[in-house]
Specification:
179 residues, alpha/beta, Rossmann fold, 6 helices
Length: 179
């Protein structure tokens, strides 16, 4: 079974991991998350880096450099950190690391997501295997398109959900009830 290491295991990390837990042995480092029997939780980044050759960065963009500086050898790096360029990841990673950026949206939580990716082409089959399990995935022709995807696909649905929720609340205030 293939091994995959998650650094950070918040809502998005959990949403990505859940549909692939039967296909991959999933290792996790996140000191702030309650442990679960479906995954292997490790106590340090060093232990995670020893266990896997591919990591999925599911941390806030500001945390990416400090995490990557702890890498001691080249790895396959899949980053979902919005706005962190491949060049920035490369500058903070060991030489020889293979890097790909992926921008999933919140709908991956219900296996109806859309994920766009760009980077090291040799990682495309792996990224497809991971992200097609939670919706559709699409390769981009240029990294510059990632920012557009972040705005439209990544953040757009959140604004739509907020708008719909506000409409529903307005209806309730006017006397309507939920079914």
């Amino acid at each position: 079974m293939k091994k995959l290491g998650f650094i950070g295991f918040g809502n998005m990390g959990k949403a990505i991991a859940f549909p692939i837990k039967e296909k991959f042995t999933i290792y996790i480092f996140d000191p702030f998350v309650k442990k679960s029997e479906n995954y292997i939780f490790l106590d340090s980044l060093e232990a995670l880096f020893e266990a896997v050759d591919t990591i999925l960065l599911c941390v806030k963009p500001a945390q990416v450099p400090s995490v990557l500086h702890q890498l001691s050898r080249p790895m396959n790096i899949i980053s979902i950190a919005a706005g962190v360029s491949i060049q920035s990841i490369r500058e903070n990673s060991p030489e020889g690391s293979k890097i790909i950026r992926v921008m999933p949206n919140l709908a991956v939580q219900v296996a109806e997501g859309a994920s766009a990716y760009y980077g090291e082409e040799s990682l495309y089959p792996l990224v497809e295997e991971i992200f097609s399990s939670s919706g559709i995935s699409l390769s981009l022709t240029s990294e510059s398109l990632m920012d557009a995807v972040t705005g439209l696909s990544g953040s757009g649905p959140a604004f739509v959900f907020s708008f719909i929720h506000s409409l529903a609340e307005g209806g309730v205030k006017c006397g309507l009830t939920y079914p």
